[in-house]
UniProtKB/TrEMBL annotation:
Its cofactor is thiamine diphosphate. It catalyses: N(6)-[(R)-lipoyl]-L-lysyl-[protein] + pyruvate + H(+) = N(6)-[(R)-S(8)-acetyldihydrolipoyl]-L-lysyl-[protein] + CO2. This is Pyruvate dehydrogenase E1 component subunit alpha. It comes from the Eukaryota. NCBIfam families: PDH_E1_alph_y. GO terms for biological process: pyruvate decarboxylation to acetyl-CoA. Keywords: Oxidoreductase, Pyruvate, Thiamine pyrophosphate, Transit peptide. SUPFAM superfamilies: Thiamin diphosphate-binding fold (THDP-binding). Residues 90-374 form the Dehydrogenase E1 component domain. Its EC number is 1.2.4.1. Transmembrane segments: none annotated. The lineage of its organism: Eukaryota, Metazoa, Ecdysozoa, Arthropoda, Hexapoda. It comes from Drosophila busckii (Fruit fly). The pyruvate dehydrogenase complex catalyzes the overall conversion of pyruvate to acetyl-CoA and CO(2).
Amino acid sequence: MQRATARVIEPAINQLGQLLQRLQMHTAVEQPCPRPSPVEDAAEEERSLDAEDLRVLHLAAPFKLHRLEHGPDTLVVLKLEQAKRYYRQLLALRRLEAAAAQLYKERQVRGFCHLYTGQEACAVGLCAALREQDNLIGGYRIHGYAYLMGVSAVGVLAELTGKCSGCARGKGGSMHMYAPHFYGGNGIVGAQVPLGAGIALASKYRNEDAVCFALYGDGAANQGQIFECFNMAQLWQLPLVFVCENNHYGMGTSIWRSTSNTSNYKRGDELPGIWVDGQDVLAVRSAAQFAIDHARRHGPLVLELCTYRYAGHSMSDPGTNYRKREEVQRVRRSQDAVERFGTLCQQQALLSKSEMLAIEQEVRDEVQQATKVAIGDAELPLYHLWSDVYASSLLNKIRGISEHNLRHDVT
């Protein structure tokens, strides 16, 4: 009897040990700087030895697999410091988008503005899994990704208002924010995916052991260039993860009206794929960690993150002409990413109500201060129209301009 019991328990213990070892290899994103210092890493590792600071959890929803015998771990570890970090990040993304919406309504933000409200678990989970050398490129809902990859709240909001403190000094706006290893967004639907394939090709060529995540939405999932990239990435075995953030509406058209095969994780043909509950931070993190390992060893794969956006396609879209308000309210009540994770942390006794309120106040203060700077900061002088056009310039002049002799400046 004891031998039979040992045969059952011992593999489970081994599996848990391997899981803990794998999770410790992945560095989660810090705020506002996403790369923890060695001192912080050592402190977190020391705290993790305390059983009270660690929970082993079963994910609520199973993964769906395509051309894979085994998928991501459904038994995941959540440490106390991770709980605090993820909850803070979720709140920060939610608050940043609320501030962006208000600035847009006040006409402080001009042009397009696409909000990420409701999809926060996708960004927080993905960025929690990234290693220091991994890369990411997105579409046009990138405010949250820019923040998680190291841009401050001031850098995000001031970029929206076109001010000097913006991460691109006000020249990029909503869709063009950048940070180390973050290659920004793209205003052309799906155009970032070929660029992501190029980033992955460069990493492989240079032997950098870096994986690139190329994000796109369900509205871009029928673009021909994405399928061309599927083929080329598989042929060349690129370290590339295609991430379809399926929020079920491409502009004003539901996925069920626009797409014959709504299982985006299966649409890579020969590429393996995984369906993920995109409203669960820990599920997204587990899938992203698996994807990094798979891309390094076996080449590209597709992740479909099933999520939902509360706002319209952009600020000019009320978001109620093609769906009912009751649908949005139902998702908010039952699947909200911030509420789900906050409830989990309370149920697991990782965060108390007072601790969560303190984090909320900290985030509120950060975003309020950033909003003041984004409104009050100055715009660049006019001559900066022709600065920073090139990363470097051999002639120190702007090429291709007739009747003008404009000197190129790198600021």
